[in-house]
Amino acid sequence: MKKKLSSILVIALLLQPIITKATYDNVALKIDDKFLLNELLQNADKNKNGLIEVKEANSLTKLYLDSINITDISALSHFPNLTTIITERHSIADISTLANLPNLTYVDLKNDSKSSFKKGIEDVTPLANLTELTYVNLNNNNVSDVTPLASLTNLKNLMLEDNNVSDIKPLRYLKDLTVLNLKNNPIYDYLPLGNLKKLSRLYVDKDKISDIDKQILKDAGINVYSVALELEKESEFLESIPVDNPNLPYNKLEDINNKDDAVYVMEDIVYNLTDVQKEDVYITELVTNYAEEAIMQVASKSIQNQPVINYDFIVDLEKEANVTADALTKTIEDGGVALNREIERNILLTSKEAANATLTLDTTLTQSQGVDNLRVETKDVNFEVDMDNFKEEYSAQPLEIKVNTNGVGMQNNNIDYSKTSYSLSFGSVAPKKPLTVALPTPFGNTDYLAAYQNSNLLGGTYNPATNKIEFKTNLEGEFIVQSNQQDFTDIANKSQEMQEAINILTAKGIMDGKSASEFGPDAPVTRAEMATMLVKTIYAYDATARSNFLDVFEADWFFAGVGSATNENIMKGYDNNTFKPNDLILKGEAISVISRVLQNEKSYSIPSDIEYYLAQYVDSSDIPNWAKADIAFATRENLIVKRTDGMFHPNGTLTRGEVAIILKKLFDRLV
């Protein structure tokens, strides 16, 4: 009998459905709150079947909610990998389920101040163990006890406007806090915050802080803002908090001989990055640039006694560049760094013994697949050729390039060529796409070094991998690098970030002062000014460029700038064939144009979660649909100067100081 029962049991077990991981991943979750379900479907339903499956829940990291009817978020416990939650409005009182989401770094549970739901969130205990949090927004809720927040030692931004907080002593443990909003709370003692060394912005009610306390906090380095934002004008903008740059091992580049060497060095770089550095878009660009330099070390060959370069000469380098680029991309992304553009596949041809060189690039280079740039190194000068020059529509003739190291002592239009100068010339045709030329760096602060072509200021960027100043040109002539530091008397009371941007961009010739001593940082920016500055930023300014707009004349200072911008399809005119050069450019238009410049120059991708980035602005609903993707991109890439009031103001204007910061951010990404 026992034997028979055992047999029956075995058969029954065999007949049970086998639950594999694949089966489990496709199980649909039960979500009771229909309003939450509707929002989750918009965020996570990738296969558009009207269900949220386990695999979809596991893959969701950022959640954007916008429904006043949401009351129950307990279903979020099924989304273990959430790092970000943003709400515009809600009716949530219980956030206990958040305690089960340890990966959260960004929680925005602000409520709509106009909402009829007045209860809001009272208990913030569920946040106490979420120690990865760096941003918490609980504006317009009903929080009174902030003790649970004392353990959030990584917190940098805390928003508690319009709550019932009276005792802020627990916040004194938040040593990394940089921005704190306590407006519209019954608080009268702010001195417990005096030991927060990194706190730079504190928002309070004007009538709830004494002048003495305000001065004590200011002496501690804390700028105090009242409801009226009664600080000087430059405080309208939030100064960016710089992230320490990693110490990239440029000295190891010469030791890289193959793909494995490159991967080994990159693994070490990524391993030593902090989590904050991995999230920083500028540092991501530095790492990407390093990878591109490493690829060239692998895909390199001497061209001594090789005056003509054809496709057969580089075909093996092309394969090495592609394989190494794929390997480094995987290494970087596996290390937790998200790349927002593809790593360029570049190859290197060296002739380091020669001070002068003449090289012919054959039309067979049209056969190249996947290579982005071809760099040639001589003893003193490097030049990099964009392989788009060998597209069939450009390459009817070979491209001949000649570089020479010249003597000293030349003077030209007040430009001192007493040091060595270098000349560049082409054969019968000039390159359609500009060359990237790199010249030796003379003594001086590299921020203020600039290249000149004859008497024309070109600008340039320092490349730490080569220790040279790089600039783009398709002009022939004599070139030199020298310091061009400016000194303006009307920017001393501006932020350090703004002063630095102004000084660097004027040294590079991207922006000009209103006079030799005045920059005019508070003056608004016109369409003509923006057009001219942008083409200079990307080395696309053509002094011979023309335009046919009815309101742009050859005598205008901006004639060539507007012509260059329209030729490069950076800015356009209006249907009535006008450009309106003296109209002030609107912020939404300016940021959109700047975003597209970076996308075109570096092939960046548009973010897929546009609303996530736009939700950072209080007035996101005012952003026009045509600009949303570009403004989301600019937000992700840190191209925007944030405001203290959290607004974007798409229909507002920009000051010259604000534009200087934005263009400096763009300039830094175009290395």
Summarize the structure.
The chain is of the alpha/beta class and 671 residues long. The protein folds into 3 domains: 2-231, Alpha-Beta Horseshoe (Leucine-rich repeat, LRR (right-handed beta-alpha superhelix)); 250-483, no CATH class; 496-669, no CATH class. It has 16 helices and 24 strands.
Structural class: alpha/beta
Sum up the overall morphology in one term.
globular
Rg result: 29 Å
User: What is the total number of structural domains?
Assistant: 3
Low-confidence runs of at least 5 consecutive residues: 227-235
Helical residue percent?
Answer: 25-40%
Helix tally equals 16
Placed side by side, the strands forming the largest sheet appear as: 1-2-3-4-5-6-7-8
> What does the main sheet amount to?
8 strands, parallel
Percent strand:
15-25%
Residue-averaged pLDDT, rounded?
87
Distance between the termini: 82 Å
Instruction: Report the count of strand segments.
Output: 24
Explain this structure.
The structure is a single chain. This protein is an alpha/beta fold and 671 residues long. It has three domains: 2-231, Leucine-rich repeat, LRR (right-handed beta-alpha superhelix); 250-483, no CATH class; 496-669, no CATH class. 27% of the residues lie in helices and 15% in strands. The protein is built from 16 helices and 24 strands. It has an eight-stranded parallel beta sheet. A seven-stranded mixed beta sheet has the order 9-11-13-14-19-23-22. A seven-stranded mixed beta sheet has the order 10-12-15-18-24-20-21. β20 and β21 form a beta hairpin. The protein is globular. Residues 227-235 have low confidence and may be disordered.
